[in-house]
Write a structure and sequence with these properties.
By secondary structure, this protein is of the alpha+beta class. 56% of the residues lie in helices and 13% in strands. The strands form 2 sheets. Strands 2-4-5-7-6 form a 5-stranded mixed sheet, covered by helices on one side. Helix 2 packs parallel to helix 3 and helix 6 runs antiparallel to helix 7.
Length: 359
């Protein structure tokens, strides 16, 4: 947006300093006149019969006052220009950093030295903003690259199968159709997950009162056949727990947590426990499962898109697309909640979601 040309902040401060000194000098002269010269008699004998009189004093005082006023004005302009330059120097550094950020360089930091003042706080806040923005941009770039890679895989498989079928017309079509369907299903699942992740990131979900205990029971009922097939015991405990949010997104959040707990579990004889409770002003959903021990350094990466971790990769039909916990994290963030992942000493993972409760 183009704006009309105006005075710079430095010039405005300079004129303000000079004007302040000029007004102060004029007030001082007025005080001298009002409280001193007006008491000098204006006659030939002057004060106490001794010359000079008021006329002579005014004639002698006026040139000196004019010189003093001119000096104050010049001193105010020069001194104000210097002081304003020193005061506004931090803004020049902040402006330069903002221009570099506007040109795409987010790695630059101001790192202003000196004591803590308003300019230092502004510079530190700007550095923090640049750091978060750089991290967000890097995360989005990694996400775009990973999403492109993940989407390319089923498409490349489909292309390879079609090429093979074209070169070998006698190939079993049933097997070809099955493999094409599997690749197409994976591409659709990934696309739907990406759309859901984008929707939850925008935070435009509707808000209504949702009973998380009913959501947990519905998710458990949906995934009970999968748990029974794997020999996993699935339990839902806790009472009514209400939170404000989108029923569809909250159901997907709990479903992803429960499915993740079932899939990444012991080969047989494992357990998954889903518990809901009201804790103060927060509504809590806790999903705990058995499984193999997780390295502590692996846990923080589980909520990043496509970061499955080597020890959690599945090769069966529930391999997933690497967006389960990323979607959970995004939904929790869109509902102003918190997500905690804690590895259990005996193996497995404890996931706790805290959402703002409603009466």
């Amino acid at each position: 947006m183009r704006r009309r040309f105006g005075l710079s902040a430095r010039l405005k401060l300079t004129l303000s300093y000079a004007g302040f000194l000029a007004v102060a000098g004029a007030l001082l002269l007025a005080v001298v006149w009002g409280f001193l010269l007006r008491y000098v008699p204006d006659n030939s004998q002057g004060l106490l019969g001794i010359a000079p009189n008021r006329y002579l004093l005014v004639r002698t005082f006026s040139p000196a006052a004019a010189v003093a006023m001119a000096f104050l004005l010049v001193f105010g302009l020069v001194g104000g220009w210097i002081l304003a330059g020193r005061m506004l120097a931090p803004l020049d550094r902040i402006t330069a950093a903002a221009r570099r950020a506007g040109n795409g360089s987010l790695s630059h930091r101001i790192r202003m030295e000196g004591r803590q003042d308003e300019f230092r706080e502004l510079a530190d806040a700007f550095d923090t903003m640049l750091e978060q923005l750089e991290s967000h941009v890097a995360e989005q770039q990694r996400f775009a690259a990973n999403a492109s890679h993940e989407l390319r895989t089923p498409l490349a498989i489909s292309q390879s199968l079609l090429d093979v079928a074209r070169r070998d017309p006698t190939r079993d079509r049933a097997e070809l159709f099955a493999r094409l369907q599997a690749a197409n299903t994976r591409a659709i699942d990934l696309t739907e997950a990406l759309l859901l992740l984008s929707r939850s990131d925008r935070g435009n979900a509707g808000r209504e009162s949702v009973d998380l205990s009913l959501v947990a029971e519905e998710a458990a009922e949906t995934l009970l056949p999968l748990a029974e097939k794997r020999g996993i015991t699935l339990d839902v405990t806790g009472g009514a727990t209400r939170a404000g949010g989108s029923p569809e997104l909250l159901l997907r959040m709990v479903t992803n947590l429960v499915q993740n707990a079932i899939v990444h579990n012991l080969p047989a004889g494992g357990t998954v426990t889903v518990h809901t409770e009201a804790r103060g002003d927060a509504s809590v959903v806790r999903v705990e499962n058995t499984g193999h021990p997780l390295p502590p350094e692996l846990v923080p990466t589980l909520t990043e898109p496509f970061q499955r971790g080597t020890e959690r990769v599945r090769t069966d039909e529930h391999a997933g697309v690497g967006l389960g916990l990323a979607i959970v994290h995004s939904i929790v963030r869109a509902h102003d909640g918190t997500l905690d992942l804690v590895p259990r000493p005996a193996g497995g993972l404890l996931v706790e979601v805290r959402l703002p409760g409603t009466p």
